[in-house]
Amino acid sequence: MGKRFFQSYRWVLLSMLVTILVLAAAAGYTIGVVSKNQAVSQIDVNIGSVEAYLQKNENQASQLTEELKEDYISKTRTTAMILSEDASFLTDDRTLEELRVTVNADRISVSDDRGNITASTDPSGEGSTVREEFLSHLSDNVYTDVLFLLDSDSPTIVAASTLGESGGLVQITFPAASTVNILQEADLANTASDMPLYASGETAIVQADTLEYISCTDPQKIGQKMAENLFQTRHKSGTLDVKTDDGAAAMLRYQTSGDYVIFATVPYSDIYHMRNVVVGWIAAGGVLMAVVSCLSLRMQLLREEKKEK
């Protein structure tokens, strides 16, 4: 019975098998290409959003720095004019302290025409000199400048202005904590977290030179360094095949932007998840159709044998 069944319907069964394989292969290829293109498009959208944010952040920081600089210059120049017109501020510690509070400064120091500090709201500062950056301007008739010393362990903002005909400088140290909070790029740490990719994809920003994570969808990586440099610096952007921390095959797409490299990593299991599901359903459906067909053909064969008898 089985031998006769196979001989009679082997071409039908073989045709069904070939059709199922062709359908599965075609669907797998088509959906795989579409899925990968969609992943690339989504990554490019995320990278473009991050790059736009970086540029906006940089422009805002530069503009804000100029605005703050103008404010400190105005306060320092006004203080210098007051001290030039009223010498009592230099002899009365109480009035000099009131002036410090008025301009919201940490310390006000006044120097002679050689740069030696002769009066200060901080007694420990008397006897020292103004900062080296200001010494060369002691002979200037009009000079005011601000130094943003924000990269040190104790960030400060120091401004100085000449005292006119009396000679010397007024040097004012302003608190920098609020300015650092405004200017620092701490918001970058949350940038990537707002742009997740698939179930286990990753978006990140790293320093181009140090490869330190500035922002990442995995907050535990922020502040750490990449184990190896995966980027080809001679290319502004590119796509690479890499391994995730779990050893899974993944696609990495990156783009450089100024001092940063923006990249996204998506495991291929996420990218091709829909393809695998569709191919699985086609295969399962094909097997089910083959079983039903075999049962129908077997029944037909049994009827023919019954008629022959």
Which SSEs are present, and which pair or pack?
Elements: H1 2-85, H2 88-91, H3 93-102, E1 107-111, E2 117-120, H4 132-135, E3 144-149, E4 156-162, E5 169-174, H5 177-183, E6 202-207, E7 213-216, E8 237-243, E9 249-257, E10 260-267, H6 268-271, H7 273-308
Antiparallel strand pairs: 1-2, 1-5, 3-4, 4-5, 6-7, 6-10, 8-9, 9-10
Helix pairs in contact: 1-7
Descriptive labels:
five-stranded antiparallel β-sheet; 48% helix; 7 helices; alpha+beta
Please outline what is shown here.
The protein is of the alpha+beta class and 309 residues long. The chain has helices at 2-85, 88-91, 93-102, 132-135, 177-183, 268-271, 273-308; strands at residues 107-111, 117-120, 144-149, 156-162, 169-174, 202-207, 213-216, 237-243, 249-257, 260-267.
Report on this model:
The chain has 309 residues and is of the alpha+beta class. It contains 7 helices and 10 strands. The strands form 2 sheets. The protein has a 5-stranded antiparallel beta sheet with strand order 2-1-5-4-3, with helices on one face. Strands 7-6-10-9-8 form a 5-stranded antiparallel beta sheet.
**What's the number of helices?**
7
Helicity range: 40-55%
Element-by-element helix/strand order: HHHEEHEEEHEEEEEHH
Write out the strand line-up for the largest beta sheet, numbering strands in chain order.
2-1-5-4-3
Largest sheet: 5 strands, antiparallel
Structural class of the helix and strand makeup? alpha+beta
Task: Please indicate the percent range of residues in DSSP E strands (runs of 2 or more).
Answer: 15-25%
Q: How large, in whole angstroms, is the Cα Rg? A: 37 Å
Question: How far apart are the termini?
Answer: 14 Å
